[in-house]
Amino acid sequence: MPRQTGQWMRLDGVGRRYGLRGPWVLREVRLDVPAGALLRVEGANGSGKSTLLRLLAGIDRPTVGRITGRPRTAYVPERFPAALPFTAAGYLTHLGRVHGLRTAEASGRAAEWLARFGAAGHARTPMAELSKGTSQKVAVVQALLADPELLVLDEAWTGLDPAARDVLDRAVAERVAAGGTVVFVDHDPRRLAGAADGRFRVADGHLRPEAPDATADAPLQAGPRTVIEAEGPPGAAPPADLPGAPDLAPGPDGTLRLTVPAAHSDALLRTLLTARPPWHVRAVTAAQGPGPDAAVPGGNPRP
Fold first, then answer.
1. What is the distance between the alpha carbons of residues 70 and 26, in angstroms, rounded to a whole number?
2. Who has greater pLDDT, 16 or 21?
3. Cα–Cα distance between 149 and 258 in angstroms, integer?
4. Is the peptide bond before 277 cis (omega within 30 degrees of 0)?
5. Is the pLDDT of residue 273 over 60?
6. What are the record keywords, sorted (predicted)?
7. pLDDT at 3
8. Does the residue 30 lie in any domain?
9. Are both 195 and 241 inside the same structural domain?
């Protein structure tokens, strides 16, 4: 697990059932949750995946067993209660304050994340009037507002448009690159393919480890990649711990070519542009497989 920086949380002999005589949904779950990791949970419908995620998020308590070492956690449930007496911005600001942000900071971050997900125009729309897709964007944004140490996502991509799914992919990569842990369930087996540090399957009430992703030591290498040509100050080395572990190679006219999975490109650009002293980004292109690089439409770097 190349991004692991320590252990945050442990489930020890955890079981969960509903009611004194209800059937056991989960039994004897033992799981160490490391910091700085991406963990995927799989299983058939009704197998107990959502119950496990609710236990991780602190929404449910175990019937038996112990959960220790809980970090700051945010959660996107499988079903988001959209009919709430707030506007989208009002709800997000309220949740930001619950997460410990000051009002102005929560409001600012809410506006930034809504814009990033293409939902800025709905900031003042009452929650009950939002479309399903926009409501899901709000559900995701509330979990991302305060940079949680543990982000728990239960089918969070469902209902999002393709552009918003890409934004969430990038947000997941950024959380992990920043040392956070993300645990997710998604019905699409291609979701973040090759990126997970650990995969687990819930079956017959038990949690079992699966074989790790084949490319887990190269985070988010599957799918499109981005090439950034940047020029640093004379004699300066690239900043340490670059997001996405980019491949480095000499570029034209003394530049440096950084090739990174597309999901990490925003975080990498931000790191270069905010370095002290900052790097100058000359070009951003898309590398699709072994063929020639293709220019990204409107691919100007963002600060």
1. 19
2. 16
3. 28
4. yes
5. yes
6. ATP-binding, Nucleotide-binding, Transport
7. 42
8. yes
9. no
Are residue 47 and residue 145 in the same domain, yes or no? yes
Burial grade of 161 (CB within 10 A; 0-12, 13-18, 19 or more): middle
DSSP string, 90-105: HHHHHHHHHTT--HHH
In-domain check, residue 219: no
Burial of 108 (0-12, 13-18, 19+ CB in 10 A): middle
CB count in 10 Å sphere of residue 239: 16
Q: Where do the H-state alpha helices sit in the chain?
A: 49-57, 88-98, 103-116, 132-144, 162-177, 265-273
pLDDT tier at 291, thresholds 50, 70, 90: very low
pLDDT digits (tens, 9 = 90+) for 164-189: 999 999 899 889 888 899 999 999 98
Count of Cβ atoms closer than 10 Å to residue 77 Cβ: 18
Q: Give the integer Cα–Cα distance in Å for 230 and 114.
A: 29
For residue 301, being part of any structural domain is answered with no
